[in-house]
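User: My advisor asked me to double-check a structure prediction for S41 family peptidase before group meeting. I don't want to rely on an old file, so could you generate it fresh from this sequence?
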Amino acid sequence: MKNKSKIYLPLLLGLACAAGILLGAKLDFSSTQGLLSSNPKKEKLSRLIDYIDYEYVDDVNTDSIVDVTVNRILENLDPHSVYIPQQEYATVTENMQGDFVGIGVSFYNVNDTVVVIQALEGGPSEKLGIKGGDRILYANDEQLFNKNISNDSLISQLKGKEDSKVHLKVFRKGVKNLLNFNVTRAKVPLKSVDASYMLSKNLGYVKINRFSETTFQEFKKALNKLKKEGAKEIAIDLRDNPGGYLSEAISIVDEFLKDGQLILFTKNKKGDIEETYSNRKGSFEDSKLYVLINENSASASEIVAGAFQDNDRGTIIGRRSYGKGLVQREMGLGDGSAVRLTIARYYTPTGRSIQKSYEMGNEAYFNDYVRRYKNGELVHADSIHVADSLKYTTPGGKIVYGGGGIIPDIFVPKDTNMEKENLTYMLKSGIFNPFIFQQLEKDRAFYNALAWEEFQKEKIITDQVVTEFLSFLSSQNYPVKMTEYKPLLKKYLKAVMAQQLFGNNEFQRIINEDDRIIKKVIELSSDN
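Assistant: Sure, here is a fresh prediction for S41 family peptidase from the sequence you gave:
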């Protein structure tokens, strides 16, 4: 890796100078006037781009040259400084904003027809009574079936400006005539709180999948609901949460800390330190608290776990977190694209950095999971390597370590059986979804009429359904053998069916059944 870096160093330096000029010309900071002043290097790049545009013998897309240059520069800074091209920016922004404007359905394009998987909770379609299995045949009298329309085109038909109207004609099995719906497009929430329900009499559970602009608002709503249901203790599940907006994570921490406690501090290249403290009365400051993390909990998730751990608040349960302690700021480049540039490092209240090393390059950095798997730290807590030089002590006398992720207070090993690993990977890949959709289509009226309580009691996933699923996998060139984990496969199939019928909350309820870390939390709670 180092030899390769030496070979490309002159090229990278040249690219760095070139893209630095372009970046400098586009940054939208009000405080960077001195940085953006004209100099010969910038003029040199501008002249080169002009020569290629106007004189080069072949047509060349100079925009693509600039994109490649920017990416190569950022790759050699750190793993989390990234470029967002113009064509991807809207999607990335929408995901982090926590909502989008549209009619509020998820759908498949089945046999060249738009078939609703689910009307999204809180969206305009749900409010009007559009259901899973409905076929949207016309939008404003424009035919949407048998036209080989791409998914992108369909999405553009169904999305639109807020408060704009679209007239839908919908076919529903068992109904003779087409149904007419006048839908007013509205903001549809993209929820970051997947689930909130009671694990036991006093123990409430909240699962957060990322930190978007609406996460604290969703979290607070979930807490209030759980409190009404009798929750005196809270378990916050941050497993597989990659992070997001730091401000949302800080607001959540503030719900559980007394006023004036340090949550984190950041330090930039000048050595300037910015500290953040809890500053308001939280609704669960005196309750028992549990935070669930694993090897995929990163960034803002680690801020939450680190803030609680360093303030001797709650119990962190699971496996060592990812190890991302770099702070990015998004900067527009003037053409609809943007760069997220690392501008500081963050530190937990005891002063530890949890950023893991990236000295061996980006490939080694992002493949760190493989290293952890091989050295056994996902199974044995004593395989986690820590350095005494990175030892810190909390106010309560607990020893904690920096140098790469949050080490939990209570370790729960990962089940590394390859058959189960493959099954879990399949669940995350989405391969279950089309099969379950086909199952529901066999008797849509029956399934749509089921209440959640009835669904729980019904023997929905039979051995015959499992056999059909294995055949489906084979037809998709996805051959899998099931032996001892057949019950787990049944559970996953039922969970995905619950998701399509009832939503993420019920999906998570089923997924959490017999979960090792959830069991440990329940064992530690006051209900036992």
